[in-house]
Amino acid sequence: MERFEQIVKETADNEKVKGYKIGFQLGLLYSLPRVVEIVRKYAPNKKIIYDHQKAGTDIPDTGLNYAEVMKGSGVDAAIIFPQSGPVTQVRWTGELLQNGIDVFVGGEMTHKGYKRSEGGYIDDKAFEEMYVRAAKQGVVNFIVPGNKIDRIKIYKEIISEYVDDPSFGSPGFVTQGGNLSEATKVLGDNWIAIVGRDIMNAKDIRAKAEELTSQL
Question: How far, in Å, CA of 196 to CA of 213, rounded?
Fold first, then answer.
């Protein structure tokens, strides 16, 4: 928590840092409302996105419970990866939206061994279905793998058929090999670069944030 508070304090005045993605470690160990309180204290105008890594994988009925937790904690948005199928996806997305929580829907992840073509469990075509279903339900924010530029191009093209001006969030940079400048060329201005370990492990947080945001 001390490290997180330091990061927020040293990046709060950086206009290109649009918000903070909170993972389960901070959220569960210290309570999500407490984490939200830290951000609001130093950076009240920045977005707080909760990523349960991976939410949206339970039965449909628990979508309401999750949405109520998100609303009660005070976050602005939540990320889901609807790997449990379309019924759960629709219910969880709907509950979040109805509770005033923006939804980021992800499909393909950054690591090897996830999708069927790389030895994983999930059929490659399922990702396109996840994104399209989300777009049809009114979702405008999508998570795409930042270290797979070829896949980003495909997903952006597919999603843009249903959403006029989609917004993207991409992990997979620096440590996982993605290039911020290359992703910017593909996604344009309406996207968020999700950078984790490179900031968490930086000796000079402010300088590292300025270095990374200069590439956007």
Answer: 13
Q: What is the DSSP string of 23-66?
A: -HHHHHHHTHHHHHHHHHHH-TTSEEEEEEEEES-S-TTHHHHH
Calculate mean pLDDT across residues 172-182: 68
Given the structure tokens 């949206």, which residue do they identify? 56
CATH of domain 2-213: 3.20.20.70
> Would you state the pLDDT for residue 179?
76
Domain range summary for the chain, segments of one domain joined by +: 2-213
The Cα–Cα gap between 117 and 102 comes to 31
Rounded mean pLDDT, 156-181: 83
Residue 9 DSSP one-character state: H
